[in-house]
Design goal:
Rossmann fold, alpha/beta, 312 residues, four-stranded parallel β-sheet, binds phosphoric acid mono(formamide)ester, 2 domains, five-stranded parallel β-sheet
Length: 312
């Protein structure tokens, strides 16, 4: 196998279609391996250590990375809450912490509240840094698992019509996913957000430069029959500086069962999770609801990334 060309995974733009195909086929192998009677990859990373350094809360990203490393035979250094329980609480800089962790781990998975933090850590790190979400910046591994889910359920990514709904301004998952979708042919993206959290201009400019069709809409009901995928997101209270803007945005777009029934029968509903009220539990048993499988796919994608970064 040729060496994996990335030293760090910081932003979605680092991936081209060939690299995405390699990550997805490796994730397919990991998924098959987990179901095999004789596992081939169970010891693939034996002797390697992953540090998970999370300065912000997480359920899916942190535990799926830790599960991925454990299922590949590697070991894990972790802290419940790096903001409070690491020496960041005593004023240590992120770059100093990164240099120190370089001595203890072979790879660092990092979530931080500031956009650009993963890049700053990578600049001083001799071991791979994986950005597990940097403030309102990016969440590239989420975008990889999102795209993998689209490919898996819709049979491909070219020609996909997707609605991104909710907090598009501060939503790092939709930002990273938009960058990846722009690699594919004839993708159409509908942005549906309250005015106070509309998609940012940098993403729209990027899509224009990559000839990806996008539209801004206010009426979710109108768009639902025209898309293959509805990607709902939470209005993230913790990112709003002006509380009144959060009040203005919250509860505006809710995908009820009645609304979901306007979608084509073979369309899919996705959400990076956690959710609050934007998808009521009544939608969970709709066959189009794929958000729990989407979260599970994170395990296969993160196994693939760890394997590719550490063993090739
Ligand atoms: N989707 C996602 O990043 O979830 P967590 O915040 O639980 O990691």
């Amino acid at each position: 196998m040729a060496g994996f060309p990335l030293n760090h995974v910081i932003e979605a733009q680092q991936f081209d279609r060939a690299l995405l195909a390699e990550v997805f086929s490796t994730a397919d192998q990991m998924r098959a391996d987990l179901n095999a009677a004789q596992r081939v990859y169970a010891d693939a990373l034996r002797g390697r250590i992953m540090a998970s350094l999370f300065y912000e809360p997480s359920t899916r990203t942190r535990f799926s990375f830790e599960s991925a490393m454990a299922r590949l035979g590697g070991r894990i250094l972790t802290t419940e809450n790096a903001k409070e329980f690491s020496s960041a609480a005593k004023g240590e800089s992120l770059t100093d912490s990164t240099r120190i962790m370089n001595g203890y781990a072979d790879i660092i998975v990092m979530r931080h509240h500031e956009a650009g933090s993963a890049q700053a850590a990578a600049a001083v790190s001799e071991v791979p840094i994986i950005n597990a979400g940097d403030g309102a910046g990016q969440h590239p591994t989420q975008a990889l698992l999102d795209l993998y889910t689209i490919r898996d359920t819709l049979g491909g990514i070219d020609n996909v019509r997707i609605a991104m709904v909710g907090d598009l301004k501060y939503g790092r998952t939709v930002r990273s996913l938009a960058y990846l979708l722009a690699k594919y042919d004839k993708v159409t993206i509908h942005f549906i957000a309250p005015a106070v959290c509309a998609m940012m201009e940098d993403i729209k400019d990027y899509l224009d430069r990559h000839h990806t069709e996008w539209h801004e809409e206010g009426d979710l009901t109108k768009v639902l029959p025209e898309v293959d995928c509805v990607y709902m997101t939470r209005i993230q209270r913790e990112r709003f500086i002006v509380p009144e803007e959060y009040d203005e945005a919250v509860g505006k777009y809710i995908l009820t069962r009645e609304k979901a029934n306007r979608m084509p029968k073979d369309a899919i509903i996705m959400h990076p999770l956690p959710r609050v009220d934007e998808i009521p539990p009544e939608v969970d048993d709709d066959p189009r609801a794929h958000y729990f499988q989407q979260a599970k796919n994170g395990l296969f994608i993160r196994m693939a990334l760890l394997y590719l970064l550490l063993s090739t």
